[in-house]
Amino acid sequence: MNLKDKVVIITGASSGIGEATAKALAREGAGVVLAARRMKRLQTVKEEIEQNGGKVLVVQTDVSSAGQWKCLTDKTIAHFGQIDILINNAGIMPLSFIKNLHVEEWERMIDVNLKGVLFGTAAVLPHMRARGKGHIVNISSTAGRWLFDGGSVYCATKFAVNAFSEGFRQEITASEGIRMTLVEPGVTVTELAQSITDREFIDNNPKLPPMSPLTADDIARAVVYAVIQPEHVNVNEVLVMPARQKI
Predict the structure, then answer these.
(1) pTM of the model
(2) N or C: which terminal CB in the chain sees fewer CB atoms within 10 Å?
């Protein structure tokens, strides 16, 4: 499917997978809406895309706010006239051991990683249903399949995103054709680990076996693959892992 006339909202677009995905979709001809909290960084990404001929709108957004989601979708429709694809990518990963009770970090992960996906879906779905088409891509993680020490709450949010995505596919995709794709990256080089504050976890976290981790561009290519398929094709799930990652 040609993305030339498509409009895509990408959350967490100021760095990492969101930034790489925005650039990849812009290269495919889509108009991209960059959403994140770091406005200065968003402007830098916007300039880089525009230098290559891309069409960009920047909207500062905290995905944990339903009100800011409404502002994001309203501005997108006012600027581009439509929303074809939503990439729910924003996420945080302040890993910690349960016994250390980093409750505020637990709450923030639930707000961003889970409620951000729910609010985003709720914000775009009426528009997509009215048009009779659309595509939502939820960026989850292998942490939505396998638990690990220190990742209980983070994994819980990703398990929930996986369940919601499959529920959406069964309820909405199967009856109305609004597509849903779940993308689950394995070990990927991003800024996520920089938010970890649990000193015990940092000091005792077992080291990963030697491997070449994924890059943000690897995941961006997976997203592009899913969204360029013909409209009668739904790529339900994409699990992307380093070749040497076991779980």
Answers:
(1) 0.95
(2) C
